[in-house]
Amino acid sequence: MVSIPEIQIPLSVLGSTANSNSIPLLGFGTASWPFGESEEIVKGSILTAIKLGYRHFDTASVYQSEQCLGEAISRALELGLIESRSELFVTSKLWCSDVHPHRVLPALQDTLQKLGLEYLDLYLIHFPVSVKPAAGYVVPFNQSDLLPMDFKSVWEAMEECHKLGLTKNIGVSNFSVKKLQQLLLTAKIPPAVNQVEMSPLWQQKKLRKFCEEKGIHVTAYSPLGAKGTLWGTNQVMECEILKEIAKAKGKTLAQVCLRWVYEQGVSVLVKSFNEERMRENLNIFGWKLSSEESQKIDQIPQRKGYPGLEFVSDGGPFKSVEELWDEEI
């Protein structure tokens, strides 16, 4: 007998290609730092997440969590937590060492093998930059390995993966307006998604407006600041305005952040391996922020949490963080 999840998560339709599908607006992240640690914890947490009602799972070759996710999906099917793989929305990402035209298809095939799946729902280019293939999946990498990305040829290889039916949707991550414009100049299939850092402290208004105009769905990562990771800070969880709103509303600060992101019309990824917090993070759908509360959040001073300094080098394609993100952060 198939178990009924505790909460049904709203969906949003992606893209306009023949085999597009819908993305759950709250997803579960599988990146634990350092990458590749605590495999049993990751696997157990994914199973718990499926029981609770999460249906969108986000992984990446560099996270070293693809195999854990695949094993958890297989176990969930055995246990009857889901009836078929089609109930899930699985996203993975092409790492920089594979951001070369001839490496895209083999990288996706490797991802599918690790996951034990025939197709992905979404395959993203992780960053708009390449590193030498020999650098592999080690993070941080040597900055002397940084190379400019061949936007046209790499995207053509992504389009080929889509045509072969190995992924239902293709997209990007960490792309600025300027980099999306460059990609769109030659793309036959526009990116369905741009997954970017977004929180009340980094609201991405300009980027969201551009993506909306172009029909590109935005997915937010690090909505709570990703404290304790290479790419995170504690500035979101220590924001006084958010603390005040949470207290007045009788909600957790995390719930206020997630609800705010959801109300911006984007999907949001959240990562916690603690079951109580996993439940809390799901409880963002039966209530709203008032216009006054939204206005207060709107006025929070903006500061990016993840500068991406490892991608900045005098000898690389980006000489400054402003060049990487195409804005001040």
In short:
With 329 residues, this protein is an alpha/beta fold. Helix content is 34%, strand content 14%. It has a single domain (11-325), classed as NADP-dependent oxidoreductase domain (TIM Barrel, Alpha-Beta Barrel).
- Supply the CATH architecture: Alpha-Beta Barrel
Q: Regarding CATH, which class? A: Alpha Beta
Radius of gyration: 19 Å
The number of strands is 12
Keywords: Oxidoreductase
Pfam families: Aldo_ket_red
Site (Lowers pKa of active site Tyr): 93
Protein name: NADP-dependent oxidoreductase domain-containing protein
Could you explain how this protein is built, in words?
The chain is an alpha/beta fold and 329 residues long. The protein has one domain (11-325): TIM Barrel (Alpha-Beta Barrel), CATH 3.20.20. The chain has helices at residues 39-52, 66-79, 104-115, 151-163, 177-184, 205-214, 240-249, 253-263, 275-282, 291-298, 321-325, and strands at residues 11-13, 22-24, 26-29, 56-58, 89-94, 122-125, 130-131, 146-147, 170-173, 193-197, 217-221, 267-270. Helix 1 runs parallel beside helix 9 (275-282) and helix 2 runs parallel beside helix 3 (104-115).
